[in-house]
Structure prediction request, 60 residues.
Amino acid sequence: MFVCPVCGRKAVGKVASGQFYCWDCCVEFSVSDKGDVEIFDVEVDGSLTAHEAPLQEVVQ
Prediction:
């Protein structure tokens, strides 16, 4: 089970292979096979932009 790398909560759903969405803070993130995480904000028109806010210090 994944936790959100932004808010640390578990309200995460799978969007596609390696891509997830947090229902609590409304960000989409992808996790590579190497464990690298990329985080995106979902804009009003549905497009994705790079997330700029700081991440949780501890992500389980």
